[in-house]
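Handout for the seminar on molecular recognition.
Each group receives one record of this type.
Step one: identify the two inputs.
Step two: read the structure output and locate the region that could contact DAU.
Step three: write two sentences on what you found, then compare them with the reference statements printed after the record.
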Amino acid sequence: MKLLVTGGAGFIGSHFVKRMLRGGDEIVVLDKLTYSGNRANLPPGVELHVGDIAEPSHVSRAAHGCDAIVNFAAETHVDRSILAAEDFGRTEFRGTQVLLEHVRATGIRLVHVSTDEVYGDLEAGGAATENDRLHPSSPYSAAKAAGDLLVPAYVRTFEVNASITRGSNTYGANQYPEKFIPLFATNALDREPLPLYGDGRQVRDWLHADDHCAGIELVLRKGAAGEVYNVGGGDEHENIEVAERILELTGAPRSLLCSVPDRPGHDRRYALDTTKLRALGWAPAHAFEDGLRETVAWYRDNRAWWEPIKSGEYRDYYERQYAERLANATPA
Ligand code: NAD
Ligand code: DAU
């Protein structure tokens, strides 16, 4: 297949590009190269169009001759959506609509990559199924939910060939160090404070990037139009437990771990029922304990990738997000 991977220079998109190249598919990437997009995430020689999914001409130029589009392009950080939400609406809603209009006009397939956050907070014990109602809590997850709603509407009205995946919290190499695991790993390596939001007892369902990409590939090949497929690691852990393990893996002192004022609207727990994707033949291959060890080792061995990122725009963001919080920190 010849595939257009939108957002392919980001974290999960670049893992997907490498996976599909290994499998012999031809890849074109369309990426706006926002702060989290990085040419260095892509293997040499990949055809990269720097452009915006919300611009129809950028999409039609990049998608020329492609058999399918897999859409990873998004503004992806909850905390940034709380600081300023505008770009989230444009990329997540308008961008998804432009992609749907393209597949409507050309008849090619679309896999739209979404998130478990659209289901919102879950009680202990339960797991979200694909039929659950959407109940997003943050500007990020609301924007993702808005984009998601367009997909079945275009399938029903225009009979486009599109499916949705909803993945759980993903970790691995090349994740921008604003997110929990790479932020805590790189801060621990630098012996900087680890800012745990609130009591740190929030639960996330961790999924290795390779397992997430395997699920997306399966949906691309075997998923049905109009259907949603959950992709969840089934590896639930409290944030404080993950933070303590990162301290052990980096040999950093416990005193670095601090409790800071919580994220507004913070969801307490996510969990996914993955029965539907497993019926197509998918199962996660990476246990979180092994994957976390390998991921922390990757950040230890790849300072050349993340040290340049942690300057400029990142420092400004870090200051806005954490300076006041760290001034009010208490021991965790
Ligand atoms: P990321 O921030 O690392 O990558 C996003 C990429 O999209 C970047 O390369 C960025 O430059 C690009 N982009 C942003 N706006 C664009 C636009 N308008 N046009 C073209 N490119 C644009 O994010 P990620 O973690 O790799 O997430 C990829 C997708 O997976 C997102 O849709 C996200 O919602 C979803 N997702 C992420 C997770 C997770 O835990 N990271 C879990 C489930 C789902
Ligand atoms: O669940 C899937 C989602 O996972 C994706 O859709 C998002 O794109 C991705 O960013 C991620 O969202 P989260 O909000 O769950 O991830 P984040 O890494 O921001 O935070 C994970 C948990 O760690 C969450 O409970 C908040 C907490 N946290 C995070 C940061 C950055 C802290 O305690 N301190 C921090 O400094």
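Reference statements: The CA atoms of residues 80 and 321 lie 8 Å apart. The mean pLDDT is 98.
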